[in-house]
Amino acid sequence: MRILYHFRVRGTGAEGVHIAGMAEGFRALGHAVSFLSPTGADPTAPEGCAPTAQARWLHGLADHVPQCAFECMELAYNLSARQRFRKSLAAECPDLIYERYAFFNGAGVWASKHVQRPLVLEVNEVSGVERVRGQRLVGLAQAMERQVFRQATVLVVVSDFLKARALEHGVSPDRILVVPNGVTPQWVAMHPPPAELDAVDRTWKLAGKAVVGFVGGLVHWHRFDFLLDVFAAARQTCPAAHLLLVGEGPWRRPILEWARQKGMADAVTLTGQIPHARVRTVVERFDVAVIPHSNEFRSPIKLFEYMGAGRALMAPDVPPIRAVVQSDADGILFPPDNLEAATQAMIRLLEQANLRRRLGAAAAQKVERYYVWPLHAARVLDQVQRLATCQGHSDHFRYTTGLCT
Q1: Which domain holds residue 265?
Q2: 34-48, 65-79, 163-177, 384-398: which has the minimum mean pLDDT?
Q3: What is the edge-to-edge ordering of all strands in the sheet holding 288-290?
Q4: What is the pTM of this model?
Q5: Statement to judge: residues 376 and 253 lie in one domain
Q6: Using one digit for the tens of pLDDT, what is the confidence trace for 11-60?
Q7: Contact at 8 Å (CB) between 289 and 306?
Q8: Would you say residue 405 lies in a domain?
Q9: Is 270 left (phi over 0), alpha (psi -120 to 50) or beta?
Q10: Residue 7, domain CATH
């Protein structure tokens, strides 16, 4: 089967990992996947592929225009997207369109109707909720969202919160599939050799230290103020603890300043941005893997990367994480924003090596069994096929024959 994967986002960072994961999941099942995006990005390309000049220009423009102007650009994208789709539909002749939902975007719905092919719409966030980038035209976004959700063949959401929002929009329950994030099977199976782990120790001077690790952007969204307070409190009991933050962002300077003021500059290390291919080895060095903050609708990629690497996890007890993690069985959950509970969880993990090993092993087994991308891809395609069979739409679902009209 030929799948055309459309996304309007940059396709880098966590979103790039998700896009690449689903695409490779489809490919692992024997299907062909091609990408369509404003910049022509291919998130499955080898690490180190530099963005094009067009991509750099578009990213810079998006970063600096006022929010209202940015949202007008999002609306205008529908016009150019139709032209892009026409070319890709003619060249690729896809049997299925898979689209990562973006605000104000109706291009996938148009393309699906244009060639009478199913549209799978993947939803990672909805309008009107707290997000990293604000939102101004919320009413218009919600109106368009309602129509797009209703017209997609299958709606794939990453949390029960998003499923509830889709139901509020009038989407039939049988067209909604909850599929959290995941990892590749190779991520779980990988065991970095000692020489690579030694190199991590040498690079960031971690030998003999108990590493509390985090992977992600250094942005306010992750509540580093809370994480730093928890770490400082836990280190009073566990003086060998060392905080390793893997990523880059505007909070770099505040984090380093906080560490200096607390007299813990030698206990906090920021690695900067590193290639995702190397992240797995660095995560292997974590003694405790931490998610300081999350919300009711996101499915954090780092959750599955930590667990798939067999790390002892501590994370806030919010619904999308609770749906994956059983506290004290394959991780430890603490009440969100509860400094005392989070501190005790960190101390407990730092002090008890056997507990870390037990939780980490159980976490890796769970991820391997339920949360790898090929399994997610198979669930999506099964849902599309199930609708085709139950609803008798043999003409509409002609992707099963591989024929092109």
Answers
A1: 185-370
A2: 384-398
A3: 268-272, 241-246, 210-215, 288-290, 312-316, 332-334
A4: 0.91
A5: no
A6: 778 899 999 999 999 999 999 999 999 888 899 987 645 566 666 666 67
A7: yes
A8: no
A9: beta
A10: 3.40.50.2000
- Segment 379-388 long-range contacts (CB within 8 Å, at least 24 positions apart): 379/177, 379/179, 380/22, 380/98, 380/120, 380/154, 380/156, 380/177, 380/179, 381/26, 381/29, 383/154, 383/156, 383/177, 384/96, 384/118, 384/120, 384/153, 384/154, 387/153, 387/154, 387/174, 387/175, 388/118
**Per-residue pLDDT at 54:** 64
User: Distance (Å, rounded) from C-alpha 122 to C-alpha 111?
Assistant: 16
Predicted confidence at residue 138, as pLDDT, reads 81
Q: Determine contact, residues 7/99, Cβ cutoff 8 Å.
A: yes
36: phi > 0 → left, psi -120 to 50 → alpha, else beta; which? beta
Domain count, the chain: 2
**pLDDT grade for 262, boundaries at 50, 70 and 90:** confident
